[in-house]
Amino acid sequence: MSRRDERGSMAIEMAIIIPSLLLIFGLIYAYGRAAQVNGTLESGTRDAARSATIARSYDEAKDRARRVVDAAIVDLPRSCRQSVRVTVSDNFVPGEPITVDAECDYALSDLGLPGAPGDITARSSFTSMLDPYRGLE
For this UniProt entry, which segments traverse the membrane (predicted)? Predict the structure, then answer.
């Protein structure tokens, strides 16, 4: 029984396995970034809606919502911080719900993953009720 020469087989196996492992780690990192951005934006939007409900005017509510979202996303990628858009519904009447919507675009292209989209848009929305027994300006 003759034994085949197996020299170099480990190098061939590694040449096949290593790129696959790197791709898997890259995908894990990309999904982690998406989860971080979405979770942080969701949290910031929720806090912004609650902050907007204690404002005395619609303009103050918009200002509060923007400041709260900006403060919440300070640790997110720069592309998201620069492209964030915050809107507050204009039904600022005691006893009515107001909705804060926030969205931002962030890049995945810097990860170097083949086939990764360039930018992804994260969106979040939260509704909070205005106190029906308080005064507004």
Answer: 12-32
